[in-house]
Design goal:
The protein is α/β, with parallel strands linked by helices. The chain is built from eleven helices and 15 strands. It has two domains: about 180 residues, Rossmann fold, CATH 3.40.50.450; about 140 residues, Phosphofructokinase domain (Rossmann fold, 3-Layer(aba) Sandwich). It is elongated and about 70 Å long. Bound molecules: 6-O-phosphono-beta-D-fructofuranose (F6P).
Length: about 350
Amino acid sequence: MPTSSLAKIGVLTGGGDAPGLNAVIRAVVKTATNAGISVLGLEDSFDGLIYPEKSRLLTPRDVTGILRLGGTILGTVNRGDPFAEQIVTPIGTFDYADRVMEMFQKMGLDALVCIGGDGTLAISYEFYKKGIPLVGVPKTIDNDIYGTTSCFGFDTAVSFATDAIDRLHTTAEAHRRIMIVEVMGRNAGWIALHAGVAGGADVILIPEIPYDLAKVSECVRRRDEKGARFSIVVVAEGARPKGGSVSLIEAAHDGHVERLGGAAMACATALEKLTGKETRYVVLGHLQRGGVPTAFDRTLATRFGGKAVELLLKGQFGKMVANHPPDIVPVPLGEVVGRQKLVPLDYDLVLTARALGVSFGD
Ligand code: F6P
């Protein structure tokens, strides 16, 4: 490690949680401490810079045993745009972003490690442009962050969803039913595709390929003719019918993004009518974000945390650590924010699944 002019850095987690967040925090604290830098844990994302009671020094002892824990010991918030927010504190009303800038100085911080998804990375980039030296660490189970091959949390979510599909197989076969499982992923089909293939699904519906349920029904009929008599459908929460729209639980409001949900129910109702077969559905929801991170996610999270501190030590600010196998590399945050990594239609797993006879409903 190069010798550093950094004495104290902050670390925060923002957006929805993902298995592996604690592994990143642990790696940041241990790596920084070993380089002679103290680490301030900021609670509930940037709120840790606003409210004095929401920060605490983290020593290696504080992060012992958290490698295998889901969630985040720092807490997190899925907030709207902090640059449009006013905050009321016991000592007055402030513009949120101005207060963050002021408190960063007052708390004696030299730099930040910001761990989060597209929203948190975009906010972090704005603070970087305003003058806070920082490095971003990409987090999401959705695997949709541009500029990195993978994010920690994705492998754990896929493993959980695959296990669920395995379990649904036996009951689907016993009852000769169609079983539909809805997985997360927002506007990207990575979880559905990977879990669908790993679980041997017969139909995989992803946002990148609008579906036609008549085609899905045809696939089910062909399977019945061949004697299978049951079918497993994996549908991404962001999938939509051709010419139709996504199923929503809640529309976007006040800077908050829309909440997706209901795709499996919609497909189940329509498919039962089209096929005449008993159809059931399961929504895996937040179970995909919980639990123990897989070995892959722990390793990736640890590499990200270590690399983030290395970049700070080298003065490489305004970057995001990214997985470019076999290396972890810095990518400018400016190239990442505002973009989404969707499943390419010619991705080899899509082509392989098609070659195996999996229907994408198109
Ligand atoms: O981005 C991660 C994710 O779990 C998405 O897959 C899902 O659409 C969303 O977050 C759910 O967000 P919330 O926890 O706010 O309901």
